[in-house]
Write a structure and sequence with these properties.
The chain is an alpha/beta fold. The protein has two domains: 174 residues, Rossmann fold, CATH 3.40.50; 174 residues, no CATH class. 33% of the residues lie in helices and 20% in strands. Helix 3 links the parallel strand 4 and strand 5.
């Protein structure tokens, strides 16, 4: 029987990793049901607060020395300056045994030409058998180095297929989800008529209201300067707001570790967890999600709701791939027919390529 090792992990620093990793696992099971899929932990060397430069620690257990499978699956924003230090030796060991490399829903952390050159050199050393991107630029600049490339989508959009929420929120009350764990929560105002011009960073119409969003400038700049100053910003007080206009507020934090109670729980109704399913419940139940994280928006969109993204991260390219170019200007929802066709085509591609590989 064909064997696949699928990499899962690094959820505690960003639960959004679970969204696309579980989506990829679902897609594999759906497209190639007659294979054996084993779940393997991520390498420990991704940059963190305690390891800012990245690279695997000296005494880690290197499962790459022992694993022997037909395919190895890696996912997500794999292409980053530290990738060689994290995966280089492991890929060399695994692929020397004849294992084929499968890259699903991959993207870049940095898109500058110098970094792209580094990524291409990496792929020339470790040629992928399958390569599906999550944004067009990644496909255009790296896809030609794979045996079977595909201009794909982020696998986080499969969360609505892999998990059916029980429904935490009744239809009698309208909910909005705030996800601001990397920058301070903004002030949000609603009006039925108009807002004072120039007082807000963003103004938009949604659900028969005019919305104004304003960030505390000093605190925002402090949080954006470095991952360490972001925690210093957490010393500022929160608020006691539980409702805006007709909307009840629920808050999420995508970073269960390191958990700083004073930062995370300075607002009411905060949900933080190290497994993803409670997040799916919230993003399904909230009519609108306002977030600084791409995958909070992905989950909300996958469940048919509106989302607006507040970040300058290049990872937002995966939303542009879905026709959501203006999601940083105002809330948007995804075209359901378009999304279903993209998922269907991606599953067919995987099924066809794996079938040829097995044959």
């Amino acid at each position: 029987m064909t064997t696949i090792a699928h990499i899962l992990g690094d959820w505690s620093r960003n639960i959004g990793n679970a969204f696309f990793q579980l989506g990829g696992l679902y897609a594999l099971k759906k497209s190639v049901p007659d294979v054996q899929i084993s779940l393997i932990g991520e390498m420990p060397g991704y940059p963190s607060y305690w390891n800012p430069r990245g690279g695997n620690p000296t005494n880690f257990f290197d499962w790459a020395e022992y694993i022997d499978v037909d395919y190895l699956v890696l996912m997500g924003p794999l292409f980053r300056p530290e990738t060689e230090k994290i995966w280089g030796q492991g890929l060399a060991k695994i692929m020397a045994k004849g294992t084929k490399l499968v890259l699903l829903g991959v993207g870049m952390m940095k898109y500058d030409d110098g970094y792209v050159k580094t990524y291409r050199e990496l792929l020339m050393r470790y040629r992928p058998y399958i390569f599906t991107s999550r944004d067009v630029e990644t496909y255009d600049k790296l896809g030609d180095l794979a045996e079977h490339p595909y201009d794909g989508i982020d696998f986080g959009f499969f969360v609505s297929d892999l998990y059916t929420p029980i429904g935490l929120f009744s239809d009698e009350r309208k909910w909005i989800a705030f996800n601001f764990d990397k920058i301070p929560e903004p002030c949000v105002s609603l009006s039925k008529t108009f807002l004072s011009s120039g007082q807000y960073d963003f103004e938009f119409a949604f659900d028969d209201w005019i919305w104004g969003v304003r960030f505390p400038r000093f605190r925002q700049k402090l949080a954006e300067r470095s991952r360490y100053l972001m925690f210093l910003e957490g010393l500022f007080p929160g608020n006691s707001l539980t409702q805006i206009g007709d909307y009840e507020i629920v808050r999420t934090d995508h970073r269960p570790h390191p958990l700083l109670r004073r930062k995370t729980y300075r607002y009411p109704r905060v949900m933080v967890n190290d497994v993803p399913y409670a997040y799916f419940e919230i993003y399904k139940g909230a009519r609108l999600t306002l977030s600084n994280r791409v995958h909070a928006c992905v989950a909300a969109l996958a469940y048919g709701n509106h989302a607006m993204l507040f970040t300058r991260s290049p990872r937002s390219r995966l939303l542009e791939r879905m026709g959501l170019d203006d999601i940083r200007k105002h809330p948007m929802a995804i075209n359901k027919d378009f999304l279903e066709q993209e998922k269907k085509s991606l599953l067919k591609f995987l099924a066809d390529v794996f079938r040829r590989g097995q044959g």
